Amino acid sequence: MGTSAEGRAPGGDGGLPGDRGAPAVPPVVLPESAVPGTDLPEPAPPETALPQADAPPIALPSVALPSVALTSLWTLHHRASAARRNPPLLHDPVAVALVDRCAWPLETWFGRPRSLPEQYLARRARLYDAAVAEFLRARPGATVIALGEGLETQFWRVGDGTAHWLSVDLPEVLDLRRAVLPHGRRQRAVGCSATDPRWAERAATEAPVLISAQGLLMYLSPAETTALVRLCAGHFPRGTLLFDTLPEWVAHRTARRFMTWGGTFRFPPLRATRRSSYLRTGPGRDRYTVTEHPIGPYVLGTCAAARPLHLAQRSRWVREVFLPTLVRLDPPAGR
């Protein structure tokens, strides 16, 4: 989920959680050809993500991750927990297999998985999965560009065997991703910030692409959000853009503290995304059709008030004020 190289935390209270418990191995060293801003070399092994039963545990490479990038581990922690529920909130066997194999003290860092974040992340992932799967069904062999992908496992949840996948994230995040998740011939990566135009310049095409920014805009300023939408509109005139936004209350410090209650990790500042930052985008405004979908509703406890609270989330006012939103920007028909 990297956005910029600022906010690095190499150790101490604000540093890599792995400094306080996970066995470390030397950081992954990339070939000289794989420098930031370039495609990483493609390995040849089969495209499978489920490890063998006798595979050794995965230790966390001793790379210095920015605090924003560490949230990808928090997301993985809750996504795997949501997938283990009975019935599961999300079908994500790759996330479950990765957490089962890893030697990372996730509960020490992030606390025990909590129901509300589990529901939110599972519902968000299902909405993204449905949109990406629909796009790929209509365009077999098309390309998905995943901005700030972190340790997301969507490639294996929605892959149809023909889709091409481009991951864009900070080089050190890609180091970690390639160390713990397999990559095949249809997967590429560009090591730079999602706000860096180099990835768009390298991937620019007239062909339809889907650009996914799952869990990214909450770390961007309104100006950065507007610039990112304009960047996508300018380099991918036939592209579809997916992203999600947070309401104001979730960005509050108290809500951030709740998300890691009982753990040592502290969330970096979050930002609510103003609609004006993506609706008033200059050239992009005339190119996109905007569709917004609430990410919810949520089951809030088991007390007598749970059902009324669940029903209240059907209210348009409640959805707009209190629920996160999935936003889809589509080019006009015929492009």
Continuous helix count: 12
Structural class: alpha/beta
Please name the CATH architecture: 3-Layer(aba) Sandwich
**How large a portion of the residues is in β-strands, by DSSP E?**
5-15%
By DSSP, the count of extended strands is: 9
Q: What is the averaged pLDDT score? A: 79
Largest pleated sheet: 7 strands, mixed
Coarse shape: globular
What is the count of structural domains? 1
Low-confidence stretches: 2-16, 18-46
CATH topological fold name: Rossmann fold
**Helical content band:** 25-40%
Strand order of the largest sheet: 5-4-3-6-7-9-8
Radius of gyration: 19 Å
| N- and C-termini, Cα separation | 30 Å
- Mind telling me the CATH superfamily name? Vaccinia Virus protein VP39
CATH class: Alpha Beta
Can you describe this structure?
- This protein has about 325 residues and is of the alpha/beta class.
- The protein has one domain (about 15-30, about 50-330): Vaccinia Virus protein VP39 (Rossmann fold).
- It has twelve helices and nine strands.
- The strands form two sheets. A seven-stranded mixed beta sheet has the order 5-4-3-6-7-9-8. A two-stranded parallel ribbon has the order 1-2.
- Strand 3, helix 5 and strand 4 (about 165-170) form a beta-alpha-beta unit.
- Helix 1 (about 65-85) crosses helix 2.
- The protein starts with about 25 loop residues before the first strand and ends in a 5-residue tail after the last strand.
- Residues about 1-15 and about 20-45 have low confidence and may be disordered.
